[in-house]
Amino acid sequence: MAYSFTSTEELELLRNSVSDFAREFIQPKARELDEKEIFSYELTEKMGELGLFGTVVSEEYGGQGLDYLSYIVCVEELARVDSSQAATIAAHNSLGAAPIYYYGTKEQKEKFLPDLCTGKGLWAFGLTEPEAGSDASASKTTARYNEKDETWTLNGSKIWITNSATSITKGITIQAVSGRKHDGKPELTCFLVPADTKGLTCKTMKDKLMWRASNTGEVYLDNVTIPDNYRLGKRGQGFSIMMETLDNGRLSIGAMGLGLAKGALDLSLRYAQERITFGKPLCKHQAIAFKLSDMATRVEASENLLYKACWQKQNNLDFRMLASMAKLYCSETAEFCSREGQQIFGGYGLMKEYPIERHFRDAALLRIGEGTSEIQRIVISRLLGC
Ligand SMILES: Cc1cc2nc3c(=O)[nH]c(=O)nc-3n(C[C@H](O)[C@H](O)[C@H](O)COP(=O)(O)OP(=O)(O)OC[C@H]3O[C@@H](n4cnc5c(N)ncnc54)[C@H](O)[C@@H]3O)c2cc1C
């Protein structure tokens, strides 16, 4: 298990195929989808045909059975071009399909996963509530057990739920309070709620600053009744399922940060080589060359941190602290590179015509979603022993 800094031919082939796809199909549409705030069913289906759904799910359930680093590289190459499409894939795979794959019963996996590995079906992750964001254990959504017919009735609401309000959403994993523990604290349990369940309503949230072509929804549960065999994991295991899911999810948000930073660097370097001021290309002015050096250095450091976290995960080592560090650092690198990139573009960097403007806005979400930067610092400091 020695460290290796060399990639494999297989991984680079995968990287190139996703990169080619992103440039051929996503890039020409990204600006319009962002401007009009349109979720693209066409691109989602195409990403499914490329095998970007169910990437780490085993072939037995219809997935690609790839390792975690391969999946992370796919997300990275999408985000290099467009964060919205990367968000659809990252949220679906890490937060939607993964909990069913890792914690579901054989029946649940057979019933739900095959559809979720095609690009024709999405599954969402319903943790956040209007009054329970960073403090995710403060859920108010309730689940009442009906002994007579072995069902659960859920009531409450969720907010900011990615992929929840599309016409191809197949369901949502919901964390709800299912009772009280001996110490009086809420007992939290997860439930698989199919999208067509009576009483479930999902509404698209509009006017976002970033990820404008990704679907974000509000979810309402009004006496939603589901059978006990749609409970995910054991009663009372809900919070640990959600937190472990977020450990994995942080790797894909890290990949979104790394990809966005690389995209900003690609664009800025090319522009700095072409744009002439004071008789020479921008990149020949030391102030601009140093910006590019700093961007490239942070990109390199982010990549090493993220890939090491994936390596730890793949080798069944504790990767929680590295996942938080990678999420935190890659997000900050994305912000740094998109801001410095915008500066290199001068006035043009403030215009929608130039993709650096979209990268700058999209970077903002990375320090908020799946645990804010403040929460990552809390997680890291706790694991350090503070
Ligand atoms: C586009 C988008 C997509 C999302 N997708 C999903 C999804 O698919 N599923 C899902 O469940 N959620 C999703 N979220 C929700 C996201 O995870 C939350 O927004 C995030 O966890 C922060 O919660 P909050 O917005 O309620 O902020 P709050 O928890 O209210 O925090 C506000 C501020 O206070 C800080 N803060 C809070 N507590 C502390 C503390 N103890 N110490 C220091 N600082 C603190 C935070 O860091 C933040 O800066 C999404 C959000 C967005 C914007």
Structure notes:
This protein is of the alpha+beta class and 386 residues long. A hairpin with a 5-residue loop joins strand 4 (169-180) and strand 5. The protein has three domains: 9-122, Acyl-CoA dehydrogenase/oxidase, N-terminal domain (Butyryl-Coa Dehydrogenase, subunit A, domain 1, Orthogonal Bundle); 123-239, Butyryl-CoA Dehydrogenase, subunit A, domain 2; 243-384, Butyryl-CoA Dehydrogenase, subunit A, domain 3 (Up-down Bundle). Helix 3 (68-79) runs antiparallel to helix 4 (83-103) and helix 6 (238-274) packs antiparallel against helix 7. Strands 1-4-5-8 form a four-stranded mixed beta sheet, covered by helices on one side. The chain is 51% helix and 17% strand. The longest helix is centred in the middle third of the chain and has 37 residues, at 238-274. It is globular, with a radius of gyration of 21 Å. Flavin-adenine dinucleotide binds at residues 91, 95, 124-128, 133-134, 160-162, 211, 216, 365, 368-372, 374-375.
Key traits:
386 residues; Butyryl-CoA Dehydrogenase, subunit A, domain 2; 3 domains; 4-stranded mixed beta sheet; 4-stranded antiparallel beta sheet
Briefly say what this structure is:
The protein is α+β, with helices and mostly antiparallel strands. Helices cover about 50% and strands about 15% of the residues.
